Amino acid sequence: MTQKQPLLGLTLSELQAITKQLSMPLFTAKQMASWLYDKKVKTIDEMTNLSLKHRTLLNELYEVGATAPMHAMSSVDGTIKYLYQVGENSFVEAVYIPDGERATLCVSSQVGCKMNCKFCMTGKQGFTTNLSANQILNQIISLPECDKLTNVVMMGMGEPLDNLDEVLKALEILTAPYGFAWSPKRITLSTVGLKKGLKRFIESCDCHLAISLHSPVPEQRRDLMPAEKAYSITEMVDLLRNYDFSKQRRLSFEYIVFKGVNDSMLYAKELLKLLRGLDCRVNLIRFHAIPNVDLEGVDMDSMVKFRDYLTSHGLFTTIRASRGEDIFAACGMLSTAKQNEKNNI
Fold first, then answer.
1. DSSP class per residue in 115-132
2. What pLDDT was estimated at residue 8?
3. Domain count, the chain
4. Does one domain contain both 43 and 136?
5. 105 within 8 A of 96, measured Cβ to Cβ
6. Which of 123, 125, 131, 155 is a plausible cystine mate for 116, CB 3.0–4.6 Å?
7. What integer is the mean pLDDT of 18-23?
8. Which residues pair with 111 in a beta bridge?
9. Which of 137, 153, 40 is nearest to 102 (CA)?
10. Is 86 exposed, middle or buried (0-12, 13-18, 19+ CB in 10 A)?
């Protein structure tokens, strides 16, 4: 039996190609897009303004392709981590974070990751596969709280720029009038910074950009993040200086503060030097401990001192609130546990 192809994750031009293939009127592509991305139907039969003949044709080859999460863990602070199965034996996580009038979803782009950052559990899994636009968008559209979402961050498992074709496709659908019709200001992509993808991303869409920095010293950053070897943070900052981030698009740098590693005022001064003149902000992040990694987080007093020093010297800096620490908080921990369970480890 031929496996049906998912419609969820197809752009308008791809839906139009299907209507041409099946000799359906061209306008039915927009109708399908509306059913998929606005009304969020789960079956082709629910697309009631398509004729029965056309729905039958579609059903022979296609399905909507929305799959509910297989597991959820709820935190005392309201954060919910969802586990989605992709393929036969792989899993990815999406994390729903409600915060007053805001509700953010942290979305994965890969199963595992090639970057192998020292502080990241997903990197310890190694890399399995890229997610398709269908699998990326499914984390959003199949979320029980989908209609409450105000923001999406591509900040879950995987490196988005390492799967840029599918990520850009998902972002087009999220922001296009035929799709979710979201403002790009509601979406942030987080990356370690890959030379082949960073420039293309900046020039292809208007979503916010967050760079995983974690050390302003290239040699130390290389120890924490092997990707530094291929594309240094200084090269990256030089590229970013060519673009205007002073208007609606936001540029931020993520900085996990590690005890005795990058928490002294020496590093704050190096941060100021590296980012001088760049229209950006710094987000300080508390470290969530992961197994077999000899890194520790710092206390809140140290975080505040570091923030206040940067802010007093003109670099807008915030401390990101820690969420979900009681539910496998670090990215990749829940999926790793599920993978090990499947493999009877």
1. S--TT-HHHHH-EEEEPP
2. 98
3. 2
4. no
5. yes
6. 123
7. 97
8. 129
9. 153
10. buried
In this prediction the pTM is 0.94
Domain match, 319 and 280 both: yes
> Both 48 and 139 in a single domain?
no
What are 215-239's pLDDT values in tens digits?
999 999 999 999 999 999 999 999 9
Secondary structure letter of residue 102 according to DSSP: E
Number of C-alpha atoms within 13 angstroms, CB side, residue 44?
22
For residues 140-152, one letter each, b for 16 or more C-beta atoms within 10 angstroms of the residue's C-beta and e for the rest, the string is bbbbeeeeebebb
Strands 208-212, 127-130: parallel, antiparallel or unpaired by DSSP? unpaired
* Residue-range definition of the domain harbouring residue 129: 71-342
My answer on whether 42 and 86 are in the same domain is no
330 contacts: CB under 8 Å, gap ≥ 6: 120, 121, 288, 289, 290
Residues 24 and 133 in one domain: no
- Contact by Cβ (8 Å): 254, 193: no
Residue 246 tokens, joined: 């002073």
108 Cβ neighbours under 8 A, 6+ residues apart: 92, 93, 94, 131, 136, 139, 156, 157, 158
CATH number for the domain including 243?
A: 3.20.20.70
pLDDT tens, position by position, 143-180? 999 999 999 999 999 999 999 999 999 999 999 999 99
**What positions carry a catalytic annotation?**
93, 331
Determine the Cα–Cα distance for residues 345 and 337; give it in Å rounded to an integer. 9
Strand partners, 106: 95, 153
CATH number at residue 53: 1.10.150.530
Cβ(61)–Cβ(4) under 8 Å? yes
Query: Is residue 259 pLDDT above 80, yes or no?
Result: yes
Cβ partners under 8 Å of residue 178, min gap 6:
12, 30, 33, 34, 37
